[in-house]
Amino acid sequence: NAGVTQTPKFRILKIGQSMTLQCTQDMNHNYMYWYRQDPGMGLKLIYYSVGAGITDKGEVPNGYNVSRSTTEDFPLRLELAAPSQTSVYFCASSYLDRGRGTGELFFGEGSRLTVL
Amino acid sequence: ILNVEQSPQSLHVQEGDSTNFTCSFPSSNFYALHWYRWETAKSPEALFVMTLNGDEKKKGRISATLNTKEGYSYLYIKGSQPEDSATYLCAFRDNFNKFYFGSGTKLNVKP
After folding, report:
1. CA-nearest residue of chain A to B6?
2. What's the pLDDT at A49?
3. pLDDT along chain B (111 residues), means of 10
4. Do the chains contact at B46 and A105, CB–CB below 8 Å?
5. Rounded to an integer, what distance in angstroms lies between the CA atom of residue B11 and that of residue B108?
6. Would the pLDDT of A40 be above 80?
7. Please, what sign has the CA dihedral across residues A112, B1, B7, B8?
8. Per the CB < 8 Å rule, is A105 touching B99?
9. What is the rounded CA–CA span in Å between residue B64 and residue A56?
């Protein structure tokens, strides 16, 4: 059981370049999330999705885009990379249904992105 | 933007010491409070999920309590061991299923 898989694990980008962080989960979870973690800070929510075709902004969405065409995949797109986007990115998923299960988050291993 | 605060930021204890940390969160729009354990070079893993005021959860030497009316949760570790060294995160889940994380308490247990 793979759980939540993120790729790539490391990437260096030049200012202005674009890239996509891939996230896939094999647990049939309905909710998926993207977080970024900056030194000394907690995890900040970038975007989240409640199911295929539905996405919404989190706390820090500027400079990012997402899509959710399938239940399994939730890619995060950086269109014009800026040094402020240097961070560690975590994808997470959960099965959230009121009255059933704990709704705990399952995390990927993280993607370390540096923008120079 | 919702504020979840954890204290202390870091903690150094000796093996065998008992310790506790705090998570404070808004009392409105509350659905659940989660605690996660995050070891270096790994991903966060869930410890507890609490939903009801007065909830108490226990897993081995680690336990947690929840007070939703005043907006705080405590995590306790009894008889700390070096393998307990990690960052402990709390996360507030609101009624819209968004999770807001505190910045974590980094625990270092010295043998």
Report:
1. A42
2. 96
3. 89 96 92 94 93 91 95 96 96 90 95 94
4. yes
5. 6
6. no
7. positive
8. yes
9. 31
